[in-house]
Write a structure and sequence with these properties.
The protein has 13 helices and 17 strands. By secondary structure, the chain is of the alpha/beta class.
């Protein structure tokens, strides 16, 4: 092979779609994967040797809320956390502070923010404006929106409103015509409000009140209602955070009928339970809430059966000050998960349950990339794909919040034993994280529109 035939060669155990190739290499030129081989590496300008480490395709996190606290500027910190977590693409939710991404003007503003602030690549959700006209769907699709997000629960009347069932029908038809998937937050508002009001009347505002006021039935009713509405259209309908095996089963029935339904769960539902919340308090206040240990184990059965299409973080970077009120209802919902994503998923799936690492590549990279239209550019280590690679070093590791790249110095996994850590992250062939340091500048990340 000719000298300097590649810009960079990365050596390690390569996680492909169907197998792990040990003692292998990835050859990169122009930010693109040009070769995957085994044995002695070819000549290159730069060679990075991670022998014994797993080379995953860069993760594609299907659910990030970078702007819930500080607005568009939150992209900077969220994408730092992503880079440190082996996540090379995030799909960012539209419920930014103080206003949601629900118009052409705001969408363009957020794209500009990505170009100036992001360290990893970013796809963007939009959410419906208060309008009976659905022309905005096709218009925002043409500008590069990759999905629409709605909620069955109103967190804020402007920033994070509820979409009522009657409004969903017109939206689903318009989204189907534009071939734009619609994702929904799955908690029935009437049921939650019934239990919350009862709890407050009794003065029950402690930790347990969180999951007792958001019981499984609130999630399952929302799943069934929205999927039934969607089944009468051709829309691609997506559950963004299924915390229950029974919810995955409901979705599977619609899949069997031929409806375009996909299911996403989050890493915290697979790794944490209500006992963890008793220990960590409001830091683990998440919606839908963490479930029982029995529910967590049963959710893994959905993974095994193939009922779950992707796994995400639902990352939101609340400062600790938003998580310390003795009244559970006054604390922010959600947790930062990007930096613990790959270590936690590897620990639970591979180390504890003996899944092949290819499961992680499928559910946390390939499938979300396909869903949002980024595949085959993103989502796999394959010739012609962007050279997005997460280097994972196996071995005992205690998750240390002091090492976090984010300015938010806490996570759901603080002090937990992990079966490895992210050693380095590459985006388009350039190392953006290594030796516990972010090495890319803001603006290196790009806005991603679905491939036509």
């Amino acid at each position: 092979m000719v000298s300097n035939s590649f810009d960079r060669v990365i050596i390690g155990d390569v996680v492909l779609k169907d197998r792990v190739v040990e003692d292998a290499y990835v050859g990169i030129s122009g930010g693109i994967i040009k070769a995957i081989g085994h044995g002695g590496p070819p000549n290159s300008i730069a060679t990075d040797d991670y022998s014994g480490c797993l080379l995953f395709p860069g993760l594609v996190d299907a659910q990030v809320h970078s702007g819930s606290h500080e607005g568009y500027t939150g992209l900077a910190d969220a994408t730092r956390a992503a880079a440190a977590g082996g996540v090379t693409t995030i799909v960012d939710m539209p419920f930014d502070n103080p206003l949601p991404v629900d118009s052409v003007a705001r969408f363009r503003q957020k794209v500009d923010a990505v170009h100036s602030l992001a360290i990893v690549d970013v796809g963007l959700y939009v959410t419906p404006p208060k309008s009976k006209d659905y022309a905005w769907v096709a218009e925002l699709k043409s500008l590069g929106a990759c999905a629409i997000k709605i909620s069955t629960y109103e967190y804020h009347p402007v920033r994070f409103p509820r979409t009522r069932t009657g409004e969903m029908i017109g939206l689903f038809n318009a989204a189907a015509s534009a071939d734009l998937p619609v994702s929904f937050h799955n908690e029935d508002q009437d049921i939650v409000e019934f239990y919350v009001n009862q709890a407050k009347e009794r003065g029950e505002t402690g930790i347990e009140a969180h999951w007792l006021t958001r019981p499984p039935i609130a999630e399952l009713v929302a799943d069934a209602q929205v999927l039934e509405l969607a089944s009468h259209t051709d829309v691609r309908c997506h559950i963004v955070h299924s915390s229950l095996e029974s919810g995955c089963t409901i979705a599977s029935e619609y899949k069997k009928r031929g409806n375009a339904v996909t299911v996403e769960t989050c890493i915290h539902y697979l790794t944490l339970n209500q006992d963890d919340m008793k220990t960590r308090g409001a830091f683990l206040k998440i919606n839908p809430p963490l479930r029982s240990e029995t529910d967590r184990i049963e959710l893994w059965k959905s993974v095994t059966r193939g009922d779950i299409d992707m796994i995400s973080t639902d990352h939101v970077g609340w400062p600790a000050s938003r998580k310390q009120d003795s009244d559970i209802f006054k604390n922010g919902s959600g947790a930062p998960g990007l930096e613990g994503f790959l270590p936690a998923l590897y620990t639970e799936a591979v180390s504890k349950r003996s899944f092949c690492p290819t499961l992680i590549a499928k559910l946390a990279s390939e499938n979300p990339a396909r869903h949002f239209g980024f595949y085959p550019r993103k989502g796999s280590i394959a010739i012609g794909a962007d050279a997005d690679i997460a280097v994972f070093k196996k071995g005992n590791n205690i998750f240390d919040p002091a090492r976090l790249a984010s300015k938010i110095k806490w996570s759901p996994y603080d002090g937990r034993a992990m079966a490895g850590r992210v050693e380095a992250t590459y985006l388009r062939g350039d190392r953006i994280y290594g030796q516990n340091t972010i090495t890319a500048k803001q603006g290196y990340g790009r806005f991603l529109a679905p491939l036509s």
